[in-house]
Amino acid sequence: MVGDWVLWGMHKGHYFGTEIGEIWWKRYIRGGMFARGIGEYWYDENCFNFRRYLTRKPITLRYQQMIELKTGRWHGGKWGGGFPIIKIIWKKNDVRLSSGFLLATDRERSDKILQELQDYIDRARQAGD
């Protein structure tokens, strides 16, 4: 079933920042998205959430905003230590943004998260039609 292991709790991760137009030196700084750092993530059928430690409000990305998912080893000028970084490409007020997250330290788990998020994005698109 989609998302079973994530729905039952939060998991540790790292937020690499949000780029404007997928250009690494153009950082998006509004809405508390400037500060990078470690924290916890969770997702369900409505959205993906990441809360940096020592903050109260999580970064919340709704599936309806998401355009696509990518992976890479770098994001926002930061290297992921060789681990896969999941890049969520999304739109806010007609601005194309790319938020990078290290959610797993092995490829198999990262691929599973990527597939679960893609399934939720696909469902959100179907519901919007």
Write structural notes for this entry:
The strands form two sheets. Strands 1, 2, 3, 4, 5, 6, 9 and 10 form an eight-stranded antiparallel beta sheet that branches. A two-stranded antiparallel ribbon has the order 7-8. 27% of the residues are buried. It starts with a helix and ends with a helix. The chain is α+β, with helices and mostly antiparallel strands and 129 residues long. The chain is built from two helices and ten strands; from the N terminus they run αββββββββββα. It is globular.
Mean pLDDT: 91
The helix/strand order is: HEEEEEEEEEEH
How much strand content do the residues show? over 45%
How many helical elements? 2
General form: globular
Structural class: alpha+beta
Radius of gyration: 14 Å
Q: Give the % helix.
A: 10-25%
Per DSSP E runs of 2 or more residues, the count of β-strands stands at 10
Distance linking N and C termini = 24 Å
Q: Low-confidence stretches at least 5 residues in length (pLDDT < 50)?
A: 1-7
Largest sheet: 8 strands, antiparallel
